[in-house]
Design brief:
Layout lengths: L1 H14 L20 E4 L5 E4 L5 E6 L4 H16 L5 E6 L4 H11 L4 E3 L7 H4 L6 E5 L5 E6 L5 H13 L1
Parallel strand pairs: 3-4, 4-5
Antiparallel strand pairs: 1-2, 3-6, 6-7
Protein backbone atom coordinates (compact mmCIF):
# COMPACT_ATOMS: atom_id res chain seq x y z
CA UNK A 1 0.00 0.00 0.00
CA UNK A 2 2.87 2.38 0.81
CA UNK A 3 4.41 1.57 -2.56
CA UNK A 4 1.14 2.30 -4.33
CA UNK A 5 0.84 5.64 -2.52
CA UNK A 6 4.41 6.54 -3.44
CA UNK A 7 3.82 5.62 -7.09
CA UNK A 8 0.60 7.61 -7.18
CA UNK A 9 2.31 10.63 -5.65
CA UNK A 10 5.07 10.30 -8.23
CA UNK A 11 2.53 10.27 -11.06
CA UNK A 12 0.97 13.47 -9.80
CA UNK A 13 4.36 15.18 -9.98
CA UNK A 14 4.84 13.93 -13.54
CA UNK A 15 1.43 15.27 -14.56
CA UNK A 16 2.16 18.77 -13.25
CA UNK A 17 2.03 21.37 -15.96
CA UNK A 18 5.23 23.21 -16.69
CA UNK A 19 5.10 27.01 -16.52
CA UNK A 20 4.48 28.81 -19.79
CA UNK A 21 7.22 30.77 -21.51
CA UNK A 22 5.72 33.97 -20.12
CA UNK A 23 5.42 32.54 -16.60
CA UNK A 24 9.07 31.46 -16.65
CA UNK A 25 10.26 34.90 -17.84
CA UNK A 26 11.66 37.35 -15.34
CA UNK A 27 11.77 40.21 -17.87
CA UNK A 28 9.32 41.54 -20.43
CA UNK A 29 9.43 43.81 -23.46
CA UNK A 30 9.83 47.36 -22.12
CA UNK A 31 11.89 46.29 -19.08
CA UNK A 32 15.49 47.25 -18.56
CA UNK A 33 17.70 44.27 -19.35
CA UNK A 34 19.40 42.94 -16.23
CA UNK A 35 22.97 44.15 -15.97
CA UNK A 36 25.90 41.79 -16.26
CA UNK A 37 29.58 41.60 -17.05
CA UNK A 38 31.21 38.39 -18.31
CA UNK A 39 34.34 37.42 -20.20
CA UNK A 40 33.72 36.03 -23.68
CA UNK A 41 35.62 32.98 -24.88
CA UNK A 42 37.92 35.27 -26.90
CA UNK A 43 38.86 37.24 -23.78
CA UNK A 44 36.79 40.35 -24.50
CA UNK A 45 34.34 41.64 -21.93
CA UNK A 46 30.61 41.48 -22.60
CA UNK A 47 28.44 43.89 -20.63
CA UNK A 48 24.82 44.83 -20.42
CA UNK A 49 23.94 47.51 -21.14
CA UNK A 50 26.27 47.56 -24.11
CA UNK A 51 25.28 51.07 -25.32
CA UNK A 52 24.52 49.84 -28.82
CA UNK A 53 21.62 47.83 -30.23
CA UNK A 54 22.26 44.25 -29.18
CA UNK A 55 20.93 40.80 -29.84
CA UNK A 56 21.38 38.80 -26.65
CA UNK A 57 21.00 35.03 -26.94
CA UNK A 58 20.73 32.81 -23.89
CA UNK A 59 21.32 29.21 -24.86
CA UNK A 60 22.35 25.72 -23.80
CA UNK A 61 25.10 23.89 -25.66
CA UNK A 62 23.11 20.64 -25.26
CA UNK A 63 19.91 22.04 -26.82
CA UNK A 64 19.23 21.04 -30.46
CA UNK A 65 17.02 24.12 -31.00
CA UNK A 66 19.84 26.36 -29.75
CA UNK A 67 22.29 24.70 -32.13
CA UNK A 68 19.89 25.16 -35.06
CA UNK A 69 19.04 28.76 -34.17
CA UNK A 70 22.62 29.87 -33.73
CA UNK A 71 23.81 28.08 -36.88
CA UNK A 72 20.92 29.61 -38.85
CA UNK A 73 21.72 33.06 -37.47
CA UNK A 74 25.38 32.77 -38.41
CA UNK A 75 24.48 31.58 -41.93
CA UNK A 76 22.08 34.49 -42.30
CA UNK A 77 24.68 37.00 -41.14
CA UNK A 78 27.32 35.49 -43.44
CA UNK A 79 25.07 35.38 -46.51
CA UNK A 80 23.92 38.96 -46.05
CA UNK A 81 27.31 40.42 -45.07
CA UNK A 82 25.65 41.95 -42.02
CA UNK A 83 27.32 42.91 -38.78
CA UNK A 84 25.44 43.32 -35.53
CA UNK A 85 26.33 43.36 -31.86
CA UNK A 86 25.44 39.78 -30.98
CA UNK A 87 26.17 38.28 -27.57
CA UNK A 88 25.46 34.63 -26.83
CA UNK A 89 25.71 33.45 -23.23
CA UNK A 90 25.43 29.83 -22.22
CA UNK A 91 23.15 28.55 -19.53
CA UNK A 92 25.78 26.36 -17.89
CA UNK A 93 28.57 24.38 -19.48
CA UNK A 94 32.30 24.76 -19.14
CA UNK A 95 34.40 27.03 -21.32
CA UNK A 96 35.73 23.96 -23.15
CA UNK A 97 32.22 22.63 -23.81
CA UNK A 98 31.03 26.01 -25.06
CA UNK A 99 34.14 26.44 -27.23
CA UNK A 100 33.44 23.05 -28.85
CA UNK A 101 29.85 24.19 -29.50
CA UNK A 102 31.08 27.46 -31.07
CA UNK A 103 33.49 25.58 -33.33
CA UNK A 104 30.86 23.01 -34.39
CA UNK A 105 28.43 25.79 -35.33
CA UNK A 106 31.13 28.03 -36.88
CA UNK A 107 29.99 31.00 -34.83
CA UNK A 108 31.73 34.32 -35.44
CA UNK A 109 29.89 36.40 -32.84
CA UNK A 110 30.80 36.81 -29.16
CA UNK A 111 30.02 33.82 -26.94
CA UNK A 112 30.55 33.43 -23.20
CA UNK A 113 30.29 30.43 -20.89
CA UNK A 114 28.23 31.16 -17.78
CA UNK A 115 28.91 27.98 -15.80
CA UNK A 116 26.95 29.22 -12.78
CA UNK A 117 23.90 30.14 -14.91
CA UNK A 118 23.81 33.43 -12.99
CA UNK A 119 23.05 35.57 -16.04
CA UNK A 120 20.39 33.21 -17.37
CA UNK A 121 18.53 33.22 -14.05
CA UNK A 122 18.33 37.02 -14.13
CA UNK A 123 16.25 36.67 -17.30
CA UNK A 124 14.29 33.42 -16.91
CA UNK A 125 13.71 30.22 -14.98
CA UNK A 126 13.52 27.78 -17.90
CA UNK A 127 13.45 27.29 -21.68
CA UNK A 128 16.12 28.06 -24.27
CA UNK A 129 17.01 29.59 -26.56
CA UNK A 130 15.81 32.98 -25.44
CA UNK A 131 16.64 35.96 -27.61
CA UNK A 132 16.38 39.62 -26.66
CA UNK A 133 16.72 42.69 -28.87
CA UNK A 134 17.98 45.44 -26.58
CA UNK A 135 18.29 49.15 -27.42
CA UNK A 136 21.13 51.56 -26.60
CA UNK A 137 19.62 52.41 -23.21
CA UNK A 138 19.37 48.73 -22.27
CA UNK A 139 15.60 48.42 -22.78
CA UNK A 140 14.28 45.12 -24.10
CA UNK A 141 12.42 45.90 -27.33
CA UNK A 142 11.67 42.39 -28.62
CA UNK A 143 12.09 38.84 -27.40
CA UNK A 144 11.59 35.25 -28.52
CA UNK A 145 11.39 31.93 -26.68
CA UNK A 146 12.69 28.64 -28.00
CA UNK A 147 13.20 28.64 -31.78
CA UNK A 148 10.77 28.99 -34.63
CA UNK A 149 11.79 29.17 -38.31
CA UNK A 150 10.88 32.85 -38.72
CA UNK A 151 12.68 34.04 -35.56
CA UNK A 152 15.90 35.03 -37.34
CA UNK A 153 14.13 37.40 -39.73
CA UNK A 154 12.05 38.88 -36.89
CA UNK A 155 15.15 39.44 -34.73
CA UNK A 156 17.04 41.10 -37.61
CA UNK A 157 14.01 43.27 -38.46
CA UNK A 158 13.76 44.44 -34.84
CA UNK A 159 17.51 45.14 -34.66
CA UNK A 160 17.31 47.13 -37.89
CA UNK A 161 14.53 49.28 -36.40
CA UNK A 162 17.00 50.34 -33.70
CA UNK A 163 19.91 50.93 -36.07
CA UNK A 164 18.37 52.61 -39.13
Amino acid sequence: MMLAAALFAGCEAINEELPSYQQSSKVRVGDLAPMFKIEALDGTELTMPSHEPTLLILFSHTCPDCRNMMSDLQQYLDSNALSYNVMAISRGGTSDEIMAFVEECNLAFKVAADESKEIYYQYADMYVPRCYVIDVEGVIRFMTYEYQPDDIQQLITELNKLIY
